[in-house]
Design brief:
Layout: E1 2-7, E2 13-17, H1 22-30, E3 39-42, H2 48-59, E4 62-67, E5 70-75, E6 82-83, H3 85-88, H4 98-105, E7 107-111, H5 124-132, E8 136-140, E9 143-147, E10 155-157, H6 166-176, E11 182-186, H7 192-203, E12 207-209, E13 215-219, E14 227-230, H8 235-247, E15 251-257, H9 263-272, E16 274-278, E17 288-294, E18 302-304, H10 316-323, E19 329-333, H11 342-349, E20 353-357, E21 360-364, E22 373-375, H12 379-391, E23 395-399, H13 402-405, H14 411-417, E24 421-426, H15 427-439
Parallel strand pairs: 2-15, 3-14, 6-7, 10-11, 18-19, 22-23
Antiparallel strand pairs: 1-23, 1-24, 3-5, 4-5, 7-9, 8-9, 11-13, 12-13, 15-17, 16-17, 19-21, 20-21
The structure holds uridine-diphosphate-2(N-acetylglucosaminyl) butyric acid.
Length: 442
């Protein structure tokens, strides 16, 4: 298993370009199942989750071609209907094939996703929405079995205890494109990835209004056709590198930055004392160039995660790393996944002072973090530990970085280009190196 070794304390300086979005790519790739015509996608990033999605689509009769960041998908055989447990357990987002499969093939069988490191993550809202469209859904042997001779448009309230659901909205919106009549999704997710999916479906011939607002209206059509679209830049990757620049007191220029999707982060960074300056002259704010610089003194702030346009849960761990070094007490409240705090204990091993009570963590700023061996537990917690390691004094060793490879394209290479001392090594090499040092005569 791969491990990162980081020698912290270097200021990041330089330039990088944000990749295409993982979380936009996943439901957009699944939309290829809605037609037998080709779907051509630009800017799909090279990530493990997307390799898993290609594998799943291949099993479902889709011809998958990809080279660099260009992916071409076309269904050639519609007889399969089963998304197996072996794939679903490696990637929860497999659930987003459910809506497209049901709408086009009239049936789908997908293993029920289990819990994961960041919490329970139920899919009841996905099922509620698809049932409202007329699907018959039951559970058998750990699988969701869905069938519908025909889906019929209706008004669906898709809110749950934490508000809207991103992939639930994606599933219902995708299925409704081929339903008879009009579907209205109330309490729809407003995330920019939903807008990117709606743009894709529209390019395929769907009739959708209101994507990006809490009410999405879909007028069903008989069939969808070929399309070629570009995946939006990854707002979480962009935010993570902004925070990497801030925590190292660096000066990093970021191209292809989806600034308009990051307003809640910008608002918090402004209060912390991190400067984000737009340096390009393009129209619109979906693909900008920004420079991120921070002052030495970081102000403490309050952060509460919320559905978009609120502060994203996928940046909660990373901003916590930054606030560990602020001058005072910050308060972070997690409203989407109340258990998403596996990074807290690991940050504590690096000298951070954190007190958790339920969904809230009080972060008491310290003057410095110190390097330590730590364990990555999920994608964003791993990114948080990398940021902490970049700022810490001494060496940080992060185990199990395969979590990072699910969502960050060649992170260590990109950080090295910005001046970080970070290496990917085999876990056994690190262990052998440590025991050699213990055994060496003094
Ligand atoms: N929820 C329900 N019932 C459902 C679905 C969701 O109660 O049927 C709850 C969840 O437990 C959670 C909240 O609703 O409390 C929001 O979950 P949501 O359904 O929006 O999450 P998701 O669509 O499964 C996507 C991202 C996550 C991101 C969340 C929230 C993808 C592939 N995943 O998940 O990304 O954290 O939205 O923004 O788009 C990540 O990239 O690290 C990641 C975990």
């Amino acid at each position: 298993m791969d491990t990162f070794v980081i020698d912290g304390g270097r200021r990041l300086k330089g330039r990088l370009t944000v990749s295409g979005s993982k979380n936009a790519s996943l439901p957009i790739m699944a939309a290829a199942l809605l037609t037998d015509q080709p779907l051509t996608l630009h800017d799909v990033p090279d990530l493990r989750d997307l390799a898993n999605m290609r594998g799943l689509l291949g099993e479902l009769g889709c011809d998958v071609q990809y080279e660099g960041n260009l992916t071409r998908l076309q269904v050639v055989d519609e007889s399969a209907s089963h998304a197996r447990y072996e794939i679903v357990r490696t990637m929860r987002a497999s659930i987003c094939i459910l809506g497209p499969m049901l709408a086009r093939r009239k049936r789908a069988r997908i293993s029920m996703p289990g819990g994961c490191a960041i919490g329970d993550r139920p899919v009841d809202l996905h099922l509620r929405g698809l049932r409202a469209l007329g699907a018959d859904i039951r559970l058998d042997g750990g699988d969701i079995i869905a069938q519908a001779d025909e889906l019929t448009g209706t008004t669906i309230f898709l809110g749950g205890p934490a508000g809207s659901t991103v992939l639930g909205t994606a599933n219902v919106m995708s299925a409704a494109t081929l339903a008879r009549g009009t579907t209205v999704i109330e309490c729809a997710a407003c995330e920019p990835e939903i807008v990117n999916l709606a743009e894709t479906l529209t390019a395929m011939g769907a009739r959708i209004e209101g994507a990006g607002t809490p009410r999405i209206t879909i007028h069903g059509v008989r069939e969808l056709g070929p399309a070629e679209v570009r995946i939006m830049p990854d707002r979480i990757e962009a935010g993570t590198y902004m925070l990497a620049s801030a925590i190292t007191n660096g000066q990093v220029t970021i191209d292809n930055c989806p600034l308009d999707a990051l307003l809640a982060l910008l608002d918090r960074l402004d209060e912390v004392g991190v400067g984000v300056t737009r340096t390009d002259r393009a129209q619109g704010a979906d693909r900008c160039t920004v420079m991120v610089e921070s002052s030495r003194r970081l102000n403490p702030v309050q952060v509460t995660t919320q559905p978009h346009p609120g502060f994203p849960t996928d940046l909660q761990a990373q901003i916590m790393a930054l606030l560990c070094l602020a001058d005072g007490n910050s308060i972070i409240t997690e409203r989407i996944y109340e258990q998403r705090f596996l990074h807290v204990a690991e940050l504590g091993r690096m000298g951070a002072v954190l007190h958790r009570q339920g969904p809230t963590v009080v972060v008491s700023g310290v003057p410095k973090l110190v390097g330590a061996p730590v364990m990555a537990s999920d994608l964003r917690a791993s990114a948080c530990l990398v940021l902490a390691g970049l700022a810490a004094q001494g060496r940080t060793i992060i185990n199990r970085v395969y979590h990072l490879d699910r969502g960050y394209q060649r992170m260590e290479e990109r950080l090295r280009q910005l001046g970080a001392a970070i290496e990917r090594v085999d876990e056994e090499e690190v262990a052998a190196d440590a025991s050699a040092r213990v055994a060496a005569p003094r």
